[in-house]
Design brief:
This protein is α+β, with helices and mostly antiparallel strands. The chain is built from three helices and four strands. A four-stranded antiparallel beta sheet has the order 2-1-4-3, with helices on one face. A hairpin with a 2-residue loop joins strand 1 and strand 2.
């Protein structure tokens, strides 16, 4: 039989080492992917905590959210973020509008109200979407969607508060009008009694 330059024991050892290296490489890739998912979950959890802690302060939520984004990306050391909402801009520390960008629109009541942007400030190796992972796309979309829902809810709550305040003003005006009408009706009754 053709054993080539190696003995069967040597080939078995080489195959065992190759299999071990393959298993180790797979485990390392799985561990890396798991670490990335943990970072993404921390980001979403952090945003949920911001929404609890800072309601109804949308500005504090947006600034907190923009600071949570860079550590959640694959290369946090070269990642910065910006959220533009309405006329205001919220930036992560050391923001730089350069390099590759990933963005997701913030939609409130069916209209674009802003955008979440993440930048790599240096050229990074290709992945699923330029240098970005497909999970990062899902994360930025989820962040934009949650911020949009939060902004919508806060606007609706503010509209409800204003409507309630207006109803209170109108209720007081009606009460005052009713009191004035009772006074007028009472005088009319007195004058009718005096005429009889």
């Amino acid at each position: 039989s053709d054993e080539g330059p190696f003995l069967s024991e040597e080939r078995a050892l080489i195959n065992a080492v190759a299999e071990s290296l393959s298993t180790t490489a797979k485990r390392m890739r799985a561990e890396h992917a798991l670490r990335e998912r943990v970072k993404e979950l921390r980001c979403l959890y952090g945003i949920a905590k911001l929404m609890e802690r800072h309601e109804p302060n949308l500005e504090a939520i947006l600034q907190g959210a923009v600071e949570l984004l860079p550590p959640s990306w694959q290369y946090p050391e070269v990642t910065c973020a910006r959220i533009i909402f309405g006329e205001k801009e919220y930036r992560s520390p050391v923001f730089q509008e350069a390099g590759c960008k990933q963005a997701a629109d913030i939609i409130v009541t069916g209209k674009k109200a802003g955008v979440v942007e993440v930048y790599y400030t240096k050229k990074m190796p290709p992945a699923d979407e330029g240098p970005f992972l497909q999970e990062e796309r899902a994360l930025i979309d989820a962040v934009a969607e949650r911020l949009g829902r939060t902004a919508k809810r806060m606007r609706m709550e503010e509209d409800l508060r204003r409507a309630n305040d207006q109803l209170q003003v109108e209720r007081r005006a009606l009460q005052e009008s009713n009191a004035a009408l009772r006074t007028v009706l009472s005088r009319i009754e007195e004058e009718k009694g005096a005429i009889r």
